[in-house]
């Protein structure tokens, strides 16, 4: 069976840098979450490297490109704006999705990124990570990020009429706040929220232990039936 040229999908990691220290992240050392795992090099793609891998011709093989954050946050890539611009301006059909914790760069950057999306038929969607309605609740997992900055950045992006979504990982500490999180992010321009329980309790299904600033801490799985679902916004009251 051959490839369906023109309808391919790509998942890309453009950076192993990240400003956060999420305890269950693949790149985080659970013995000290302020550190990355020792074997992961700090690297990122430049615009020129991206163009070598994805020529204009080969770029048109793709219908969708997801720039994810498995090993780092895409927005930590210094050339992310130019890379996305190159994709959108050289493939008139492709849709780009970026997953990010959203707690970096300034509002001017996010506004310009939103304008880029709007000018290109809104074919760039950004998915922001929001895990709580307060800073304390949000950073229980999203260590090193600032909730207010995430929300302000998302508002700047959506004020430019660009599409934003939210991704929420559900634990015991935020399982009762999902609807409140949905209401909060709607006010800042999100159109939907993806709700997904953490699936990284494989070693111990009852708790996940890690060390932060020399202290042993734990995360606990959700007690509710919170299988992957999407809440469209605005919600009915």
Task: Spell out the blueprint of helices and strands.
Blueprint: E1 8-12, H1 47-53, H2 56-59, E2 62-67, H3 80-90, E3 95-100, H4 107-119, E4 124-129, H5 135-138, H6 147-159, E5 164-170, H7 178-187, E6 192-197, E7 208-212, E8 215-219, E9 229-232
Parallel strand pairs: 1-2, 2-3, 3-4, 4-5, 5-6
Antiparallel strand pairs: 6-9, 7-8
Helix pairs in contact: 4-6
Structural notes for this entry:
This protein is an alpha/beta fold. The chain has helices spanning 47-53, 56-59, 80-90, 107-119, 135-138, 147-159, 178-187, and strands at 8-12, 62-67, 95-100, 124-129, 164-170, 192-197, 208-212, 215-219, 229-232. Strand 2 (62-67), helix 3 and strand 3 (95-100) form a beta-alpha-beta unit. It has a 7-stranded mixed sheet with strand order 1-2-3-4-5-6-9, with helices on one face.
Q: What's the CATH H-level superfamily name? A: Aldolase class I
Poorly predicted spans: none
Estimate the strand proportion: 15-25%
What is CATH's topology name? TIM Barrel
Terminus-to-terminus distance: 49 Å
Count of DSSP helices? 7
Based on helices, strands and strand pairing, what is the structural class?
alpha/beta
**Count of individual domains:** 1
By DSSP, the count of extended strands is: 9
CATH architecture: Alpha-Beta Barrel
* Shape label: globular
Q: What helical percentage do the residues reach?
A: 25-40%
User: Order of strands side by side in the largest beta sheet?
Assistant: 1-2-3-4-5-6-9
The average pLDDT is: 93
Radius of gyration: 18 Å
Which features does this protein show?
237 residues; TIM Barrel; two-stranded antiparallel sheet
